[in-house]
Predict the structure.
Amino acid sequence: MWLNRDIVSIGDLSVEEIMEVLDRANKMLPYASTGHPRKPLADKIVATLFYEPSTRTRLSFESAAMRLGARVLSLGSLEESSVAKGETLSDTIRIINSYSDAIVLRHPSEGAARLASEYADVPVINAGDGAGQHPTQTLLDMFTIWKELGQINGKSIGFVGDLKYGRTVHSLSKALSLFDVSLYFISPEELKIPKHIKRDIEKRIPVKETKNLDEIIESLDVLYVTRIQKERFPDIEEYKKVAGVYVIRPSLLSRGRKNLIVMHPLPRVDEIPAEIDNLPQAKYFKQASNGIPVRMAILDMILGSE
Ligand code: NCD
C-alpha cells in the first residue's frame, strides 16, 4: 500500500517495494523532461521544508511535483519564516499539515522526519535527517546502478569518504544489503561506518573495511564517493585532519573494471576533480538527473489515484 505512506527510513521498504519504485521511475523517464501528459497530481499541493542547505533534493522534488501537475509550497529561507522566532518543528508541521497534501522535510536532527510523521496526517518524506537517513537519495542511487549496470544483484559496491556522517551511505548500504551484493567501506579510522549499521549489514552480506582504496579498486563495479561532511564535525580541527583524504584520479580509475561506474550524491568539494567528469566512468551528473523520474514515481505512488 503506497497511498498516503510516509517515506522516513529506507528500512521501511522491502526489496519488492524498492523494485516497484525503480520500475515506476523507469516508466516516468519519458516524462521527466516534458512533464506528465495526464497531470495526475493536478489537485495536489506539495510542501518543501528544508532546515538545511539543499540544491538537488529540494529543486528536484519541486520539479518532479510540478511535472506531475502538483503545485508547490516552499518554506523558503529559515530567516524569513517563524522558525527564526523559535517555532518548534512539531508546531510548524501541524500547520503545514493543513496547507498541503505531502511534506518533504530536511532537518539537521536525526529522527526529525519520524517525529514529523507523528504530527502530520499527510505523508512525510524524509529528505535527510542529520547524519541519519536519506531514503529518496537511495532510491535514485539504486535506480542509477540498475540502469547503468543492468542489475543490482551480483555487484560489488565500494563506499569511499565520510562513512560516519554521510547519511546517503547509511541509507544506501542498508538497502543494498537486501540484495546479493558485496560491500566495501573505504575510509580513514575517524570516519568509519557506524558499528550498528555495519553489524546490521553483515548479518546478510559480505562486508570489507579498509583505508586503502588502491588495494580494492579492481574488485569494484561501483565506486560511490562522498564529501567529508564538514558541518557535522563537533570540532573543526578534527575535520581538518581528514579533509582531502581521498581524491579520485584518472590513474586510479584506469586500473578498475571495464564497466566501473563512479557515483557521488553531490555536492562535491575536492574528492572528484573536474578531470574525471568526461571519463566514461563518471555517472554523478546522470545520477542527479535521475532524481526527477525517481521522485516523480514516489510522489505519484503516495499521492496519485492508483
Ligand atoms: C547529500 C546530503 O544532503 O546528504 N546531498 C544530496 O542530497 N544530494 C550529500 C552531501 O551533502 O554530501
